[in-house]
Amino acid sequence: MYQIKKSPEDFVVEEITPNEDVLEIKKDYKFNPETKGNNLICVLIKDNWEQNKAIRAISNSLHMSRRRIGFAGTKDKRAVTSQRVSINNAEPKDLENFKVNRLKLFPLEKTRERVTLGDLWGNRFTLKIETDQEIKEVPEKIPNYYGHQRFGKVRPITHLVGEALLKKNPEEAVKIYLTKEFPEENPESLKARRWLKENWGEFKEALKKYPTYLHYERILLHHLSEYPLDHINAIRKLPHNLEMMFIHAYQSHLFNEYIDEIKDKNLKQEEGPIYGYNTEIKNEYELRILERHDLDLSEFKNTLMPELSEKGERRKLFIELKDFEVLKEGEGFYIVRFSLPKGSYATVAVEQLFGGKKDE
Hints:
Elements: E1 2-3, E2 11-16, E3 39-47, H1 51-61, E4 69-71, E5 80-88, E6 103-111, E7 122-131, E8 141-143, H2 158-166, H3 170-179, H4 187-198, H5 203-209, H6 215-226, H7 231-236, H8 240-265, E9 271-274, H9 284-292, E10 313-316, E11 318-320, E12 322-330, E13 333-341, H10 346-354, E14 358-359
Parallel strand pairs: 1-14, 2-5
Antiparallel strand pairs: 1-7, 2-7, 3-5, 3-6, 4-5, 7-13, 8-11, 9-10, 12-13
Helix pairs in contact: 2-3, 2-8, 5-6, 8-9
C-alpha cells in the first residue's frame, strides 16, 4: 500500500527541454532581450491546474486566442509543474499584469519557432510517497506502460470515446462522454448523466442539469442544443488536443495490451506498435491485438474526421529509470527523484518500485 499526490506539492514535474535542461520550479528566470522572433517563449509554472483549463485561463487573461499558445506536453493536474510555452506575437511587457491564482509565467526569450507537442526530452519527477514498504531494489528498466492519466482516473473513458470515433460512430462517442457513469463521480454529475441517458436527445434540458464544473460536457451540450444530430461538430468544439487525446488514449490502450502480451510470453523485444494506418505489422502478437479488437489499420485514416487520423509509430517497451535517487527517507515516507523520457509515466515507475495497491 502506498499513497502519492496527497497534495499537489507532493508531485513535482519539471520539464526537461530538448537540450536536456531542467526547468526548475524554484529557479529565478530572466528574459534575454537579445533574442528575436515572433514567439515569446515562457516558463509556465502551474499548481493544481488541468492543462487545458490553464491554457484557457492564460488566453483569457491576456485577451487572446488560445491558438496563439503552444506547449510541448500535457502535465499532471494534481501536481506542481513547469513547462515551456510559446505565445505568438507577444512581448514580455504583455505579462506584467498577468495574475492568475497558482499560475506563473516567466518570459525567457523570443524565437521564430513556436513550442509544439513533443518538443521536449522528458520530465524530472520529485515525489513524496507515503508507504509502509521499503524500496528493496530499483529496476534497471521498467515497462513503458501508459498510466491511468491517459484514460481518466475517476471516469476512465477517454479510450472508449477514441474507439467510437475510430469506428466512425460520433454519436456513440458523444454518448459515452456525456452519459457513461462511474460510481466514484460526484453524485450531482451522476444524476445529470443518468437523466440524459434516459432522455437522450433532450440536450437543452440537460444543460440545466449538468453542473457548471463539467465544462467540456457543457460545450458539447451547447452545440447539440442547437444542432441535435451534429455530433461531429459538437466534438470539434472541444480543444483540438483533447480531441486527439481520445485517439491517442485508444492507441495507448492497445499498446498496454501489447506489453502484457510480451511479458506473458517472456519475449525479448525492444519496441512495440502505436497502431496507425502506416503501421508495419512485425509479428503474430501485433496482429493478435488487432484481431482481438476487430480492428483494421485503415480505420486510423479517419475519413469522417480526417483531423483525427493517426499514421502510427513505434514505442519502447521498456525504459530506464534515469538518475534515480532517494532525497529523503522518514517514518512512513520517501521523497524520491528520477527522470523519464517524454510520454512515460511516473505513476507507472512508482508501481514498479512498490507494487501492490496505490491510493491517490
